[in-house]
Amino acid sequence: MCSAIQTGEPEGVLTATLDRMSQILGTFSIALDANMSSLDERIATRVRELRAAAGPSLEALAARSGVSRSMISLIERGESGATAVVLEKLATALGLTLAALFEKPHAGGARTAPSPLARAAEQPPWRDPASGYVRRDVSPAGWPVPFQIVDVHFPAGRRVTYDTAARSPVVHQQVWAIEGRIELSHGEDRHRLVEGDCFALLLDRPVGFYNPTRKPARYAVVLTATGVNA
Questions:
Q1: pLDDT tens digit string along 41-52?
Q2: Could you report the per-residue pLDDT of 196-226, keeping only the tens digit for each?
Q3: Would you call 118 exposed, middle or buried from its count of C-beta atoms within 10 A (0-12, 13-18, 19+)?
Q4: How far from 228 is each of 15, 27, 199, CA to CA, in Å?
């Protein structure tokens, strides 16, 4: 004979708690989707202005990056939510790094002076459509310091690999594991990072991140101010 599981809480309290959790998750999902739409528009503008500044045509950028001309055109019009891997290919071809594509566009009116303080509300999250990882650029936008910080939440069992290459100037990066476990590949080298571990590398070869566990992982990326791959 089966008996009910005793939770120590009245059924009504449990139901209310579950309903509240569902509302919170729903609110977070709506907010994330809104931020994603805003960031996709920002990325579209940034890719357009960075390509214009660097000079390559759509055809030339496609040849350099390995991303099709039609896909680049969709990204620049804000009609495609590109994955982190595709954006990394474009950044590499432009001689930049992934974080440069998330910066506020320079065009469209006068720019406000940068502030040394970045409130949490000013750090919109972006979710990679392929792996589901969520990143936030934590550092104050435009503030003249020689490094940047990116906060990454990485889902259980997911993987992302960047076919990155050397840039000029050289970009240094450090990955600091905050929660859970992450397996990091740097070229042919493999490293397992657990809470508190930190690994330093150059962005000069392919870099991969993999969460082999059943729990989400979190890590921070600290890098030279020229860009990031996170």
A1: 999 999 999 999
A2: 999 999 999 999 999 999 999 999 999 885 5
A3: middle
A4: 44, 29, 14
Tell me, rounded to whole angstroms, the distance of Cα 66 from its chain centroid. Answer: 21
Spell out the residues 6+ positions from residue 31 whose beta carbon is closer than 8 angstroms to its own: none
Beta-carbon contacts of 111 under 8 Å, excluding residues fewer than 6 positions away, are 104, 142
Predicted TM-score (pTM) above 0.85: no
Nearest to 127 by CA among 149, 164, 154: 154
**In terms of C-beta density within 10 A (0-12 exposed, 13-18 middle, 19 or more buried), how is residue 141 classed?**
middle
- Give every CB contact of residue 19 below 8 A, 6+ residues apart in sequence: none
C-alpha dihedral, 19 to 22 to 23 to 29, nearest 10°: 180
Backbone torsions φ then ψ of 159, nearest 5 degrees:
-145, 145
Element (H, E) at 221: strand 217-224
In which residue are the tokens 């990066």 written?
A: 173
Joined tokens for residue 130: 């392929």
Q: Is residue 101 within 8 Å of 50, Cβ to Cβ? A: yes
In this predicted structure, the answer to whether residue 38 has a pLDDT above a threshold of 50 is: yes
Q: How confident is the model at residue 13 (pLDDT cuts 50, 70, 90)?
A: low
